[in-house]
Design brief:
globular, alpha/beta, lyase, 3-dehydroquinate dehydratase activity, binds 1,3,4-trihydroxy-5-OXO-cyclohexanecarboxylic acid, 5 helices, Rossmann fold, 17% strand, 5 strands, aromatic amino acid biosynthesis, single chain, DHquinase_II, five-stranded parallel β-sheet
């Protein structure tokens, strides 16, 4: 099974971006963790990051058309992008929403996820380990 691991804006700056909130692992570390976990779980991953809402939506269309499960960190789009939400709603395969931090424990504007109502499940607050658990969930759900 090919799983698309899709990351939204500013996540390429992991490691140097507010490390007290997001941890010291870099984006390359995150991509490596995803590949290692996928190999262990019998999955293949394509790990991508974009700062562009349009590009992210294109990748979600690709998942919908290809029947690929998705691990999605929409980053700030989480809180306001109905376009990302509508694109996710077209995907029939499992979609796991992930966050490094626990948005529910942060500023009020992060308490709302417009994506949560259309995903299979959400894993948040575990740092890069959120992605590992999300991939293991996809493995279980697609078995
Ligand atoms: C995030 C949480 C969002 O609120 C924030 O805008 C991000 C990262 C996380 O992974 O913790 O960019 O999605």
């Amino acid at each position: 099974t090919l799983v698309l691991v899709l990351n939204g804006p500013n996540l390429s700056r992991l490691g140097k971006r507010e490390p007290e909130v997001y941890g010291t692992s870099t984006y390359d570390d995150l991509a490596r963790l995803c590949r290692t976990t996928a190999a262990e779980a019998g999955l293949t991953v394509d790990v991508r990051q974009t700062d562009s809402e349009a590009e992210l939506i294109g990748w979600l269309h690709e998942a919908a058309d290809g029947g690929h499960p998705v691990v999605l960190n929409p980053a700030a789009f989480t809180h306001y992008s109905y376009a990302v939400r509508d694109a996710v709603a077209m995907i029939k395969a499992p979609v796991i929403e992930v966050h490094l931090s626990n948005p529910g424990a942060r500023e009020a504007f992060r308490h709302i996820s417009v994506v949560t109502p259309v995903v299979t499940g959400t894993i948040a607050g575990l740092g890069v380990e959120s992605y590992r658990h999300a991939l293991l969930a996809v493995a279980t759900l697609t078995r």
